[in-house]
């Protein structure tokens, strides 16, 4: 009995070391700790901003505009943001973007707590945050390759996803308590303070231990160069094609889930909350499973695309709430595994001097598609119901994976010759 227990404990310790191996790197550990605090504040701000806009206007249209303003800059300027990331010191760039985000959150907190806030101010600050995101997202994603060695890229990206999705569970709950007991402005104030943690972590890093990438010299046509580079590298092209389809039509949970809760299962905000939490639980489980991986391949990405398609159809077909929630947990797992593998593949397969621009293209498709995909999904749900919105997410993803499959088989056959 003792021997069996020892074997089990040894396996647990081995799995723990494999899942959390990037945390043994001091620079990544400092970044991870600060980011864990900051992402909770970020989710607090998202909930608080939505609530503030509804308090000011009682208008879903105004809510949609405020959300779109945060993503439109990425759609319009994302690729040029990637050019800047390749030219600049990534660590210092992140410090600048995080400080700017803190200032924007603090400004909104002052306006709300001082009873000075107006809708146009919320719009302006949302747009400002969107402009900061143009640089911040590709810089943070690309910076992973400077903190850890290539064999830990998948692990570090997965751990970042774990923190992001844990923040999705914790942040809105804290925001709800603050809004109910103090003021909506308190959530913005806490978010502003949360950036101190990530700034301290970045400041405490040892720059000599970073795997620095040579700065890209200034030249004309570097954005177009990134487009040509991706087109000439089939794996990158295939990866971004799948990301484009899934992001445009498959990531609109904030549109589909409220309608699924109210119209399909006859509930209210509490059922919407349960569905959102189920998605978050699945995302955390998927991120931890991804952290145990040691490599990312195009075949794995394709399999998770099929899985994403299948579980969307399963949620659409679920006859009762319990089965739907179980399928939503699976959807959270498939969604985060797909997203983590896609980001990691782009980093592994891209030349280090192109990483900022390639990741910026991913951000352009992943975040920039929201202002386009959300209205399409909303219109489809309005015409034919929430279940159709889930089919819209699943079926095109499955067709995109089928379209890529023959090419991938051809590439494998050529490699085996």
Automatic annotation (TrEMBL):
Domain of life the protein comes from: Bacteria
Domain Major facilitator superfamily (MFS) profile, chain residue ranges per copy: 22-412
UniProt-listed Gene3D superfamilies: MFS general substrate transporter like domains
Pfam family, one: MFS_3
UniProtKB keywords: Cell membrane, Membrane, Transmembrane, Transmembrane helix, Transport
Transmembrane annotation, as ranges: 61-81, 102-126, 173-202, 238-259, 271-289, 301-318, 324-346, 358-377, 389-408
Localization, UniProt: Cell membrane
Chief site of localization: membrane
SUPFAM superfamilies linked to this entry: MFS general substrate transporter
Protein's membrane topology: Multi-pass membrane protein
Name of the protein: MFS transporter
Record organism: Nonomuraea marmarensis
């Amino acid at each position: 009995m003792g021997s069996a227990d020892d074997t089990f404990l040894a396996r647990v310790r081995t799995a723990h070391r494999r899942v959390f191996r990037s945390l043994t790197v001091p620079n990544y550990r400092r970044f991870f700790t600060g980011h864990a605090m900051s992402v909770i504040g970020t989710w607090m701000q998202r909930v608080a901003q939505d609530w503030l806009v509804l308090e000011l206007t009682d208008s879903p249209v105004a809510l949609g505009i405020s959300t779109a303003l945060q993503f439109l800059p990425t759609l319009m300027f994302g690729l040029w943001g990637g050019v800047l990331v390749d030219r600049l010191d990534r660590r210092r760039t992140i410090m600048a973007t995080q400080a700017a985000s803190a200032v924007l959150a603090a400004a909104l907190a002052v306006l709300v707590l001082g009873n000075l806030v107006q809708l146009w101010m919320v719009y302006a600050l949302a747009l400002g945050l969107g402009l900061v995101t143009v640089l911040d997202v590709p810089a943070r994603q690309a910076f992973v390759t400077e903190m850890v060695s290539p064999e830990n890229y998948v692990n570090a990206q997965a751990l970042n996803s774990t923190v992001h999705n844990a923040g999705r569970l914790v942040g809105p709950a804290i925001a709800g308590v603050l809004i109910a007991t103090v003021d909506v402005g308190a959530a913005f104030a806490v978010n502003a303070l949360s950036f101190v943690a990530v700034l301290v972590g970045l400041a405490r890093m040892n720059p000599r231990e970073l795997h620095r990438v040579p700065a890209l010299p200034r030249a004309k046509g570097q954005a177009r160069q990134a487009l040509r580079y991706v087109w000439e590298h089939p794996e990158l092209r295939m990866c971004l094609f799948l990301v484009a389809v899934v992001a445009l039509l498959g990531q609109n949970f904030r549109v589909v889930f409220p309608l699924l809760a109210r119209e399909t299962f006859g509930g209210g905000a509490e059922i919407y909350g349960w569905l959102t939490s189920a998605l978050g639980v699945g995302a955390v489980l998927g991120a931890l499973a991804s952290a145990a991986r040691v490599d990312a391949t195009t075949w794995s990405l394709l399999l998770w695309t099929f899985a994403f398609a299948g579980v969307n159809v399963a949620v659409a077909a679920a006859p009762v709430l319990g089965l739907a929630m179980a399928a939503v947990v699976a959807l959270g797992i498939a969604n985060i595994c797909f997203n983590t593998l896609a980001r990691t593949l782009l980093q592994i397969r891209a030349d280090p001097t192109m990483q900022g621009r390639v990741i910026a293209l991913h951000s352009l498709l992943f975040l920039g598609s929201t202002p386009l995909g959300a209205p399409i999904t909303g219109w489809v749900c309005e015409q034919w119901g929430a279940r159709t919105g889930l089919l819209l997410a699943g079926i095109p993803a499955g067709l995109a994976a089928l379209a890529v499959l023959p090419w991938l088989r051809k590439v494998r056959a050529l490699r085996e010759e």
